[in-house]
Amino acid sequence: MNINEIKHAGLKKWVEDFAALTTPDKIYVCDGSKAEYDGLIDMMVESGLATRLNPEKKPGSVLFRSDPSDVARVEKRTYIASEKKEGAGPTNNWIEPHELKKTMTELYRGSMKGRTMYVIPFCMGPVGSEFAKVGVEITDSEYVVCNMIIMTRVGKQVLEGLGKDGYFVPCYHSVGKPLAEGESDHGIWPCADMEHKYIAHFPETREIWSYGSGYGGNALLGKKCLALRIATVLARDEGWLAEHMLILKLTNPEGKVRYITAAFPSACGKTNLAMLIPTIKDWKVETLSDDIAWLRYGKDGRIYAMAVETGFFGVAPGTSAQSNYNALAAASKNTIFTNVGLTEDGDVWWEGIGYDAPGPLTDWHGNKWVQDKGNKEQAPAAHPNSRFTAPAVQCPTLAKEWDDPKGVPVSAILFGGRRPSTIPLVHMARNWTHGTFLGSIVGSEVTAATLDVASGIRRDPMAMKPFIGYNAGDYFQHWLDVGKAAKDQSLLPKIFYVNWFRKTADGKWLWPGYGDNSRVLKWIFECCEGTAKTVDTPIGIMPTVDAIDRPEGVTEADMKELLSVDVDGWLKECDDIRKNYYPQFGDHLPKELSELLDTLEAKLKAAK
Asked: Which residues are catalytic?
């Protein structure tokens, strides 16, 4: 599309002003069509940036290898540039916004020379939904355009929905690698060096400015930047929740449906749960979203969750037929792979795919790689954060409601983390306020190399620590306020804390996880129905030892361990929260949460 086809005067001027600053060779407005996508892929294959995979193995798919400095979200270069530092809070990096805009404006100056400026009108959520939000990303990366076409709704229908004066979130992006006349990338991934990478969010003006990275959430600005960091600000002001949550549809043998959302930190099984294949007879799980959900009240007083993306940007290593058959199926064709291994016959391979490397590979650096199973120090063929970008419609378990413009009514919200001890398999909050407390203290065990608190637990409240666009203490208060706004408290979703990762003292898993997590979902379903076997404990409402169907190999003693309250462990947890975690929020921490911590500690001491 030509820029003159834009009927929105404000949008057109914004594009023209940025073009004057970045000086691209030409401007192209994306229509999101298959022809456009195929043409850009062809261009990148021809230039050497992309490798076309074997059409008999992965039809319609390509492989990219990024620069080693550009392989993941760079949290240390990600900023919430609120007008006041206090507005960003203790969990975000902050730079004074006028200073940051001045710095980045100079970086953007001439940054698109020798390249095409692409204008991507995109919608998070179904086009036409009153709950959807429109963004427009300007980029000089064909890789970004193609990923955005898979992950969001791109094109003419978005521009038509904007009309002549509709609201959009402006998203600036450049890889930061201008080209001299006649120069090309020579098939080498374009990006800037680390010290010049910036992923900046301006909450007061609702802007996203990204420079220097072409990878993932740093560059696909609809994902974490708009759908979470800026959306949390919009949600705070408009009375809803933007969350790092999957949405699944759970159907019991009688055909009764419950919708569940779940928020887990990275590497805690979110995508696996969203696409789970139950091991209990006649139960069914279907997928609506594996990563982001927007929650708000419906006219009936219930909270509804809407999936806002149209694709999966999944971590490849560890994804196998056993761990997530449906994710592999979704990525079996028409998929963009980034930083995985390439087999000699043009297929992809990664660590944890479920079988040995089929002969020599080309690793993610582009070098020959031969698997040496006896060498535990061998560098991996695929980068640990290598990804697949796959269309949601290719997922075998995609629920028919996945793109419902109203969303779906939520019965349960799950929080969880990777905790080998202390946290039981599952417990339920007594009410929304208690559930907010449980979400606020979520943490995962981390290695000694990445400790950020004395206890060795990295706190990741609501699995949102990297994604809250304002002060996290105020975010907790917003959660409490959303609960208080319910017309009928009994209609609020029940909130649970789950932990699939308990281990014995000698390091063996107590719970098999994966499809057997359906047994925990069954108990959660029963809690929503009011039929579950429960017992009240100091930490919340828990299953009785016989309430959850035991998987093969899990003994009654194992279940007692999984469903026991570790009083001493929880007292240490309280001490850690009180000394090392809650104080950082100062007077922004809602008093209800500190009072619940006092109550929990008192109940635990009484139980000793």
From this structure: 268
